[in-house]
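The following record pairs a protein chain with its ligand, zinc ion.
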Amino acid sequence: MNLREQRAQKITDDQIKKIDNYSYKVKSQSSKKWYNIISIETGFICDCPDYKFRKNGYCKHTISVEIQKGIRKQIEQVQQKQVTINPVKIDGCKFCESDNIIKKGLRNNKNYSIQTFQCKDCKKKFSINIGFEKMRATPQAITASMNLYFNGESLRHVADSMKLFGVKVTHQTIHNWIKKYIGLMDNYLESITPQVSDKWYCDEIYLKIKGDRKYLYAMLDSETRIWIASQVADTKYTEDVRPLFKKSQEVAGKKPKVLLSDGARNFMQAHKKEWYTRYKEEQTKHIRHIHFKNDRNTNKMERLNGEIRDREKVMRSLKTDDSPIIKGMQIYHNYIRSHMGINGDTPSERAGIKVEGLNKWITIIQNACKN
Ligand SMILES: [Zn+2]
Ligand SMILES: [Zn+2]
């Protein structure tokens, strides 16, 4: 037992109060103060000086709650219903809708070849290239470009890499693909609600786009890591972040019970203005004493910061407005990229939305175009 655990043992039962399922108060051993202990995904956080100073994710108060109360961290059950997005299958004739069709070799389009089918009933031949009709490059080349870009490559690097596959494109063309397909994907994905937990994080990320100062505000779910919503603004007033609160509630179909932030004034006021209610059961608790740096409990947001800062270098060279790019980052983060911190799952899988198929980009795009 280490020193802090020994000290935690000295905190008696009557010095620990359970407030609700998320929070406790523990009496200070040296003053009359009571500290707030809040349960979050990876354990407990405390607002005592020791917790803040040590930044190792625990103090005697959090330990006392864990040990003496015998409370183990319970992972919130987030998932209720599961939605699966399956690859689109060609299952019928384009002309007579008969499902009596067979594969009939490849047909060369101007730039690449696509699968053709023949209908055994009406005898007509046809090919279907859902979502990628009239594109100069294959679905694979297009989606690989997007994947490279959202993984941190610059548009010019992506264009260079495409040459290795025999695809000659300019970086502007790649940017056009991104705009087109992110728009399609976003439209489609908007109709599916992720099942998020009751604890969210919000944070502000400073960006420089084409030399202009911008702020990106992001709301994330603590348990699933779903990036719920974002808001780009020129300034950092309360009115700039209020839309983020509105959007997040719309996307998730609910408000969280606990909101974690760095305590910036704009977040505090937006929280009050958007989510205030007189009914205690419906209130969102705003926890605002968190240090995001080096805190093992909050390094998720740091990681998102990392993802975005890599991107920022690339974004400086962007000529057009940033919204499809931010949307694309969000889609990549939620649906495409595997996250080590959640066993290689995607956040969307955690939130009840599974995208099947080897190429998740293609699965989503074709579903978006089919509907
Ligand atoms: Zn403490
Ligand atoms: Zn037919």
